[in-house]
Design brief:
The chain has helices at about 1-5, 10-30, 35-55, 65-80, 85-95, 105-120, 130-145, 165-185, 190-210, 210-220, 225-260. It has one domain (about 1-250): Leucine-rich Repeat Variant (Alpha Horseshoe). Helices cover about 70% and strands about 0% of the residues. It is globular, with a radius of gyration of 21 Å. With about 260 residues, the chain is mainly α.
Amino acid sequence: MQTIGKSKGNDQTVAQLRGTLFRLLEVTKNARKIDTEASQLCIRNCLMAIVILLTAGHNCIPANDPLLVRVCDEMMASLQDTITQKTAIFSCRSILLYQPKNDADRALVAALLPKIVQYVATDDESGVGNSKGLMAQVLITFFATLSGESCKFSILLYSTLCTDSLQVKIAMTVFIPALLSRAAVNVDRENEHAVYRDTAARLMEMASKDPAMFKGVVVGLTAEQRTFTEEILRAGAGSSASENASAQSTAPSIALKMSF
């Protein structure tokens, strides 16, 4: 596999890579039809093998290859199962953050991102536990990498002409509403305070990259979205203030106990 990964993409190498990827996808598809502990373990192992295959070396699979779309579909399907969710989340993270990216890697990311955004923002029962929160963190971690020649592509329209500042603006325009939607639709199944606090932290991470652009994007939201954004940020700030006050209030009592 190491030899294949480091090869620069002759016909034989491409055929070997595509054949291996196809078999892994077929095994994953068939294992999903059998609801057993062994099949779930098989899916997790296949997801990890797919990530290794695509990121261990030079990905010479053509950027328009339909197998790349199938990879995205299998990643998202694995998010619907509580057993395979964590592996799928970390697999998506590895694909998004892999550097340096070539055309095939960028095409894969361009196909995967809209599906992740939809998963985070959609109100459904697939987000068991903190899976949507973890995936939101993956999006923001990827957002922090949107600079440099290796990442010059548009999230929405695959284009090597997209500048760093435009990438950041596009990402904010897409990610901010998705985070707001997640906070709005999932509070019934999750702790509202925890969701608001987590969403506020993600929004502040985005704002720290370019405060002026963040403000401009928020101003462009609907009145309802702007109000909700303010509510979330206040909730996050109130939580931080409460934690700081609690820490300060406990410090003197410890000092008194230790002062003999």
